[in-house]
Amino acid sequence: AKRIAPGSHVFFSQEMAEEVQERLRLSNALQQALKNEELTLYFQPQLRVSDAQLLGVEVLLRWHPPGGSPIPPGHFIPVAEETSLICDIGDWVLQQSCRRIQQWPAGQALPGRVSVNISARHFHSPDFVARLSALLQQYPACRNRLTLEVTEGVILENLQESRTRMSQIKALGVYLSIDDFGTGYSSFAYLRELPVDELKLDRSFIQHIDTRPQDKAIIACLLELAVILKLAVVAEGVETEQQLASLSELNCLAYQGYLAARPMPEPQLMAWLAQQG
Ligand code: C2E
Ligand code: CA
Ligand code: CA
Ligand code: CA
User: Fold this and answer.
1) CB 122, CB 90: distance < 8 Å
2) Which ranges carry the EAL domain (predicted)?
3) Which residue, by CA, sits nearest to atom 42 of ligand 1?
């Protein structure tokens, strides 16, 4: 929301009214889309830096309205996050992801981990852990296979509650990853107190690893921190061989990015996996 200085005159412009209208329209359309199965999962491989072995996949949501062009998640997830719609969408993504893991085709290499993005409102919803537990009972193959990606903001919103919740999630055999790590404003002290397994280094650092010495230094520091705290690290958004070489030099464990593969629908992922051998 825009902050308005006290005493300033506020005019609700035509433009603002239209923006509200547009968000409302989008939210309603998204609700329908969920019912009409217009949402699909894409998968992006995560590879080991040292030998390109497949370690996992990240699940990324896509919306294909019939007859329209696909709408990227950056456009509709923030709208969904304004209401409990994000919980319905999040539950759907978790359910679909677990079903995929449970029904993985025989003879096809199953990625070690399947990472799912979880929004703040969903993570903090009262019955989140209970529902996750029920899901794992329904799909037992997902135990020790599922990773939840949450952002720092999600955790710091309520550190005490987050800690309890994360311990319960860990007890279910689900891994926890901090997404977009390094972009927050906070100290990293909270990491000591939380049962986190993995950090994902934000693309904004990786992008400049070879052009800005400061960014490379920050990445080196975060990687050392991860060693001390015994956390796995995934570098996001690796696009060039040079970036990969720099990550290798800094002993980064894993990466994902267009260099290796873009997010893909399931049939394409299967073809990609088969080709990897
Ligand atoms: P994220 O979790 O940080 O996901 C990484 C984004 O970077 C994805 O964008 C991915 O397609 C993109 N990406 C991966 N490799 C590269 C690369 O080499 N270069 C560039 N330029 N981009 C790369 P996408 O799929 O558009 O998703 C955007 C954001 O939407 C995600 O950011 C995540 O915050 C959110 N999102 C996506 N799916 C879900 C979901 O199922 N639930 C929730 N709550 N959020 C989701
Ligand atoms: Ca993510
Ligand atoms: Ca991320
Ligand atoms: Ca991001």
Assistant:
1) yes
2) 23-277
3) 117
Neighbours of 88 (CB within 10 A): 16
Q: Give distance in angstroms: CA of 136 to centre of ligand 3.
A: 25
Q: Which atom number of ligand 1 is nearest to the Cα of residue 122? A: 44
Enter the ipTM: 0.98
Residue partners of 237: CB distance under 8 A and separation at least 6:
202, 203, 206, 207, 256, 257, 258
Closest listed residue to residue 146, CA positions, set 119, 169, 122: 169
* Ligand 1 atom with least separation from CA of 116: 41
| pLDDT tens-digit readout, 70-92 | 999 999 999 999 999 999 999 99
Q: How far away, in angstroms, is 119 Cα from ligand 4 center?
A: 12
- The percent helix, strand, coil of the chain (3-state, each to 5) is 45, 20, 35
Tell me the C-alpha to C-alpha distance, in Å, between residue 38 and each of 29, 42, 218.
Answer: 10, 13, 40
146 CA to centre of ligand 1 in angstroms:
17
